[in-house]
């Protein structure tokens, strides 16, 4: 990759900075209600289950299952021109039903990407950009597939 | 305050529609409004409210007209206004706001519009927009999705939910194609349609993927367009040129205003809630409906609405379409104007207009649904959507 173009970069706020800082440390953290234990994602200053405003980032396991995905066939941003097809994924984390993150499945052949597959987080660093939390099949090693 | 029990639609109109029309947003809005006024046979003195939603795609260079409802009413000679509003989603927002304002007595006759100034019509223009956007920092909830390349509504709204529908219910690409062919057939009979050539399943399956399983032919066609509908009280409805068409029931829903990726259920979201509420507010049932105009920003949205409105069971939309139910002559003709894939993107307003024309009777040419008395139209999907049930007199 010789391009200097980066993917769209986040503009963290006071509420979301923890998430990006954790990724830089290679940890996945989700805001969690300290009163009832509910994970609140995307970050909000209140738990919509019990209305407590005591929430703190907590590290999660990084394990999950694939809820749905798509192979992007057209680039809608210059960064992706030489990366299509790439797999956009919605991953449901094991910590809580419906707790989902948008990500990419990597290190997996296209024909092996299936809804319901078990995934684990892998942290991807690149120059001049935010570290991202991507997912790969449990036990997969890097560079096996695209 | 004196309101009205019933609200009627009495005028419809379109602007010139297409790519590179060279028309500004004001010009598009004026064309559609005047067409609707002429259709109804009314002048500015007959109207006292405006509800509209204006949207522009593409680079914003500050030189565009912004269509605001109060200013637009003044432009058309409607001053003072008793009421104006601007709200989403898409066209169902202004429509329901107008109905609510008339029912409540804030206004008696409301001009509603959806104006879209597309601007971007070529790959070069899209590329230049993307280049302008660099380097871009993403605020809000999108900071959690865009850095992973989920950057287009085709990926977010259409592809992720279509893939899930296929995996969960066994829906096939040929079933998506059956819908695309059926609504194109209606378009061949609509002189307002941009695409009027019949399609074959081979054409559909040869259409390129934009984001699997969504193909180019699953996507609506971006154009410059403005669409207008005029609503009034039952008491006034017969003062105008056209046979009035009545609003029987309507609903909005918002289930969770976040990103499409993070919605609770990708295949059963706000349309299910909107449909439930719409049916609660009427004695009519899905069996009473003669034709349905269901928002087709992408094919999978039509499938969700078919299930949400109760025309088929949950997960059964693929088979329902494949059996020909939604086609010309089927049990529930869908998108009888050809849909936004064929008449161009109007964010739902074409579906209100086609419902009104079908229920007036005799205004839909060869595609007229015989003896159509009840029609439903639906707009948007995901976190926000709405539907409206309409009846002939």
Write a concise synopsis of the structure shown.
The complex is a heterodimer of chains A (146) and B (393). With 146 residues, chain A is mainly β. Chain A has 1 helix and 8 strands; from the N terminus they run βαβββββββ.
Fold and architecture overview:
The complex is a heterodimer of chains A (146) and B (393). With 146 residues, chain A is mainly β. Chain A has two domains: 12-60, no CATH class; 61-140, OB fold (Dihydrolipoamide Acetyltransferase, E2P). Chain A contains one helix and eight strands. In chain A, 32% of the residues are buried. The model of chain A has no long low-confidence stretch (mean pLDDT 93). By secondary structure, chain B is α/β, with parallel strands linked by helices. Chain B has helices spanning 25-40, 69-75, 92-104, 123-132, 153-169, 173-187, 201-206, 270-280, 299-308, 317-322, 340-343, 349-360; strands at 7-14, 49-56, 83-85, 109-117, 137-138, 209-211, 214-215, 225-233, 245-254, 291-294, 374-381, 384-392. In chain B, the strands form two sheets. Chain B has a nine-stranded mixed sheet with strand order 3-2-4-8-1-9-12-11-10, with helices on both faces. A two-stranded antiparallel ribbon of chain B has the order 6-7. The longest helix of chain B has 17 residues, at 153-169. The mean pLDDT of chain B is 92. The interface between A and B is large, with 44 and 45 residues.
């Amino acid at each position: 990759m010789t391009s200097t173009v980066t993917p769209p970069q986040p503009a963290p706020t006071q509420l979301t900075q923890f998430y990006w800082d954790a990724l830089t440390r290679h940890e996945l953290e989700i805001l969690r209600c300290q009163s009832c234990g509910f994970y609140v994602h995307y970050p909000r200053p209140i738990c919509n289950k019990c209305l407590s405003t005591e929430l703190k980032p907590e590290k999660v396991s990084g394990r999950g299952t694939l809820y749905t995905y798509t192979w992007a066939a057209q680039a809608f941003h210059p960064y992706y021109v030489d990366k299509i097809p790439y797999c956009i994924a919605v991953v449901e984390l094991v910590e809580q039903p419906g707790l989902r993150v948008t990500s990419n499945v990597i290190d997996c052949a296209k024909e092996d990407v299936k809804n319901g597959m078990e995934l684990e987080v892998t942290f991807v660093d690149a120059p001049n950009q935010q570290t991202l939390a991507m997912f790969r099949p449990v036990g997969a090693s890097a560079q096996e597939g695209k | 305050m004196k309101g009205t029990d019933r609200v009627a639609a009495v005028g419809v109109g379109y602007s010139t529609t297409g790519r590179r029309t060279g028309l500004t947003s004001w010009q598009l809005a004026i064309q559609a409004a005047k067409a609707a006024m002429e259709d109804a046979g009314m002048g500015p003195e007959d109207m006292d409210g405006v509800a509209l939603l204006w949207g522009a795609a593409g680079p914003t260079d500050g030189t565009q007209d912004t269509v605001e409802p109060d200013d637009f009413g003044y432009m058309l000679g409607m001053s003072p206004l008793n009421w104006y509003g601007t709200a989403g989603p898409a066209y169902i927002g202004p429509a329901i706001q107008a109905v609510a304002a008339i029912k409540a007595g804030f206004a008696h006759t409301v001009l509603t519009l959806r104006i879209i100034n597309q601007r971007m019509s070529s790959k070069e223009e899209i590329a230049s927009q993307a280049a302008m956007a660099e380097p871009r920092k993403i605020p809000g909830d999108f900071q959690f999705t865009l850095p992973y390349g989920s950057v287009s509504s085709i990926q977010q709204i259409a592809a992720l939910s279509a893939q899930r529908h296929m995996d969960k219910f066994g829906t096939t690409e040929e079933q998506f194609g059956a819908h695309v062919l059926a609504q194109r057939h209606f378009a061949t009979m609509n002189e307002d349609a941009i695409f009027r050539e019949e399609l074959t399943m081979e054409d559909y399956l040869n259409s390129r993927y934009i984001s699997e399983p969504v193909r180019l032919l699953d996507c609506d066609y971006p154009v410059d367009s403005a669409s207008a509908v005029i609503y009034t009280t039952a008491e006034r409805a017969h003062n105008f040129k056209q046979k009035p068409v009545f609003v029987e029931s309507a609903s909005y829903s918002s289930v969770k205003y976040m990103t499409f990726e993070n919605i609770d259920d990708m295949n059963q979201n706000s349309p299910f809630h909107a449909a439930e509420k719409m049916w609660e507010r009427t004695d009519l049932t899905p069996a009473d409906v003669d034709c349905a105009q269901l928002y087709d920003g992408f094919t999978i949205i039509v499938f969700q609405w078919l299930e949400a409105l109760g025309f088929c069971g949950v997960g059964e939309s693929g088979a329902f379409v494949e059996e020909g139910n939604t086609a010309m002559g089927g049990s529930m003709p869908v998108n009888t104007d050809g849909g936004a894939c064929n008449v161009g993107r109007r964010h739902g307003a074409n579906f209100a207009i086609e419902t009104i024309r079908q229920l007036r009777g005799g205004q839909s040419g060869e595609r007229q649904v015989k003896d159509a008395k009840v029609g439903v139209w639906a707009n948007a999907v995901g976190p926000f959507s709405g539907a409206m049930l309409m009846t002939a007199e």
